[in-house]
Write a structure and sequence with these properties.
- The chain is mainly alpha-helical and 468 residues long.
- The protein is built from 17 helices and two strands.
- It has a two-stranded antiparallel ribbon with strand order 1-2.
- It is globular.
- The protein starts with a helix and ends in a 6-residue tail after the last helix.
């Protein structure tokens, strides 16, 4: 069992790792136009880096939960994953072709998926049912990194690209490298990526130290003193809870990443807004800053509000802000206010929803992996849709996708909470050391034979669909 001191140290290191993840994930949005120039591509083509990263993220999420379940020293895996994340970030500025860019970003996504899945699983393992504030703190660190990223990017993005917006309005399909007399660039964006990669170095060193000082016998779960022997109905109940969480977080993460990735390009290239690139970088930072502030507030609110109440309030804010942003999309003040409201409303949805899943079912590495796979799919599909419509129809479609996604996500969350609350079976708790507790079925304490029989029935019923 973890000692309290070590649990706190590991949690602090995880927060540092998530800060680095936020930094790396959010740096692409405000540097997108510079990367398009670097690779000689259009917005649609360079926008596919989000799909490439998400594909890698998906692969990392699929295998991450099972790897962490089987590992007695997860800090080794986190050390290697973070090291590869930093290395791939360092090499982004060297990619002058789209193929090389896609490959490097895919590797970055692969290891980010491992870190994301492993971080959530390890936190749940250490803190169990008391994970609420720590989960919010972990995701606040991510939001803080995402807030800092545009501020870092602003220091290095192109200083001679004020004519991007007017050029885009004159020729919507313009390749930003195709008309040097209209659009000129003087970019030092490579330093933004190198700085992000350097931030990861001390985090890698910290996890390497934790891996080297891992307690004998491995890192045991805070919930290891009891296991759930579910009722036969829990097979269907568990599947449905995880499936609805999968769909909800798929939409949520897609919208979160899509907005952070394209709000800069929308503000610069939309003919009615036409922000200067440096101002648009501040707009992106305002979104991620509100996002970070919301997650900071959620650490304290989680002591007084249930995860369901927090997620519901957040979804209301998302709907209101997305409606305002779409209906009044030509107003720059609304763009600023709406981005801030949308960011603060999106802030605590993921940790609250993840914690709510933990209330409904036992979240093992396989279950966490399944949920994070949904998040990775969303990160892949929503930005892909944004980039296609952005280039072919117009920048305004990015806000329409955001609005429709919020409406569908709210409906799925309602179904998720209703099923989790009213469809719940009554599990039996049994101590692993052989002490038997009263069974939920008629108050009879189950014998060892009954316990094994119920477990076998559950395995036969659920194993093919949802990971344990």
């Amino acid at each position: 069992m973890f000692g309290l001191e070590r649990r706190l140290i590991v949690t602090l290191c995880e927060c540092a790792g998530y800060f680095a993840l936020g930094l790396v994930l959010a740096i692409h949005g405000p540097t997108l136009l510079d990367l398009a120039h670097q690779t000689g591509s259009t917005i649609e083509e360079i926008g596919r880096i989000f799909t490439a990263r998400s594909f890698g993220y998906l692969m990392g999420s699929i295998f991450g939960g099972h790897i962490f379940d089987k590992s007695s020293n997860p800090c080794i895996i986190l050390t290697l994953a973070l090291a590869i994340t930093g290395t791939s970030t360092f090499f982004v500025p060297f990619c002058t072709g789209l193929a090389a860019m896609y490959i490097v970003i895919s590797f970055q996504g692969l290891t980010m998926g491992l870190v994301d899945t492993g971080g959530n699983v390890l936190l749940l393992s250490m803190w169990g049912a008391n994970c609420g504030p720590y989960m919010q703190a972990l995701h606040f660190a991510f939001g803080l990194g995402a807030f800092v990223a545009p501020l870092v990017a602003k220091l290095f993005i192109s200083t001679d690209s004020e004519s991007i917006a007017s050029a885009a309005c004159a020729a919507p399909g313009l390749n930003v490298t195709a008309a040097p007399e209209v659009v000129t660039f003087s970019s030092n964006v490579k330093w933004a990526y190198w700085l992000c990669s350097m931030v990861i170095v001390p985090v890698v060193a910290a996890f390497a130290y934790l891996a080297a000082t891992n307690p004998k016998g491995g890192e045991h779960s805070a919930r290891a003193s009891q296991v759930i022997v579910p009722h036969r109905r829990e097979g269907w109940y568990r599947r449905t809870v995880l499936l609805l969480a999968f769909l909800f977080l798929m939409l949520y993460v897609g919208l979160e990443v899509g907005y952070g990735g394209f709000i800069f390009s929308y503000a610069v290239k939309d003919c009615m807004v036409q922000m200067a690139p440096h101002t648009a970088a501040y707009l992106t930072s305002a979104y991620w800053g509100a996002f970070a502030a919301g997650r900071l507030a959620a650490i304290f609110l989680s002591h007084h509000m249930s995860p369901a109440a927090m997620a519901t309030a957040d979804l209301v804010g998302c709907l209101v802000s997305s409606i305002l942003l779409y209906v009044m999309r030509d107003s720059e003040p609304v763009l600023w206010a709406g981005s801030a409201l949308f960011g603060v409303s999106m802030a605590s949805i993921f940790p609250s929803a993840f914690h709510l899943v933990e209330h409904f079912v036992d979240v093992t590495g396989g279950a966490a992996s399944f949920i994070v796979v949904g998040a990775a799919l969303g990160e892949m599909l929503v930005p892909l849709l944004d980039s296609l419509l952005f280039e072919r129809v117009g920048p305004w479609t990015f806000l329409l996708v955001n609005l429709i996604g919020c409406i569908v996500a709210a409906v799925i969350f309602g179904l998720f909470y209703a099923w989790g609350t009213f469809g719940a079976p009554h599990p039996t708790l049994c101590a692993v050391d052989g002490i038997e507790l009263a069974a939920a079925d008629g108050g009879r304490a189950p014998g060892v034979q009954d316990e094994k029989m119920e477990e076998n029935e559950l395995d036969d019923d659920t194993a093919p669909i949802i990971p344990p």
